[in-house]
Amino acid sequence: MNQGYGSAPLERQGAREFPQGEQGSYPAGSPQGGGYFPGDRGKSDAPDMSLKLLMEVAVGAWAAFAAVCMLFGFSYHDSETEVWSLVLLGAFVLAIVVGTQWRQRNYNPTAHASVIIAGWLLASLMMGTLVGLFSYDCCIGEYWLSQSLQARQNVLPSEPAGAYAATGEIVFADEARVDASKSVGFKDSETYCVAPVASDAPLDTVQFWAAGIDCCGARGSFACDDAWNPKAHAGVVINNQSNVLLRSDIRGKYLKAVKLAEVTYGIASAQEPIFVRWVANPDQVQVNIWRAGFGILLASIIIAALFCVLQAYVISLILNKNRGHDRQTGIG
Fold first, then answer.
1. Which residue ranges in the chain fall short of pLDDT 70?
2. H or E stretch including 82?
3. Nearest to residue 253, comparing CAs of 213, 289, 222?
4. Count of CB atoms within 10 A of residue 255's CB?
5. Taking the complete model, does pTM exceed 0.90, yes or no?
6. Strands (E), 106-198
7. Alpha-carbon gap, residue 216 to 254, rounded angstroms
8. Which helix or strand (DSSP H or E) is residue 61 part of?
């Protein structure tokens, strides 16, 4: 082969030529190093990942999902900042890995596998966050909040509501009852129901309201929780701290229902009344709330385990199919 003046002699290696003495200057991955040139797609686009490795990744993804769920179930109520810091830091690191490895996929033989692994873990982290937030929002948050607040006994319906702003459970005096005849339902995609908590003595101002969702008629019909039970004299206080995702400003909807009741029946309400779920056993209600929230987490974790195993098999089948296609087309 003709060479220009001062040029180094070339050696032919397969289909490429290399200047003598410069083989070591090519990246590991050149024909000298056993890999690929920058921009060369290499022997195959399908990463070499065995089913055993994919199963190990599946276990890691499931563990990440379960850990995040448990963080929201057991720690989020008093460590919100710490939980979000861990979740966001993990998501940031995994996103960086996915982005970096994706840019290297054309010349790094392990980049495709790294993208699959990091992307899988990132998806598990995000799904765990969504499930954890949902369970906390619907149930667990309400339970933890009630446990952090006071429980009051023998409360009269005529007592000022402001004295019970930091209360989670209220057991009313035996004379307290729900006046279903003065109930209303405020329609806003759902029906927000309220009825005054009354007593034998007439009240100038209603301080406490029994409340619920989709459990009453437009007027004079209230069947929320244990309102039908004459032995029920207790209330689980409805707060606005939970239900961030599912229902925004639930207390504001109940206040609109109260305004409607004031106009309809000519009664007066405290400006900041207390809304309660009218129940016979508030402690049992709180336990049921916890069980419902934890049941969501447990069911999600079991389903996630099955899904991760199935996902490992599907990815293995796809990769094997791609490798078979590459062999048939002469790649590798």
1. 1-48, 240-248, 322-332
2. helix 80-103
3. 213
4. 20
5. no
6. 150-155, 167-172, 177-178, 184-188, 190-198
7. 13
8. helix 51-74
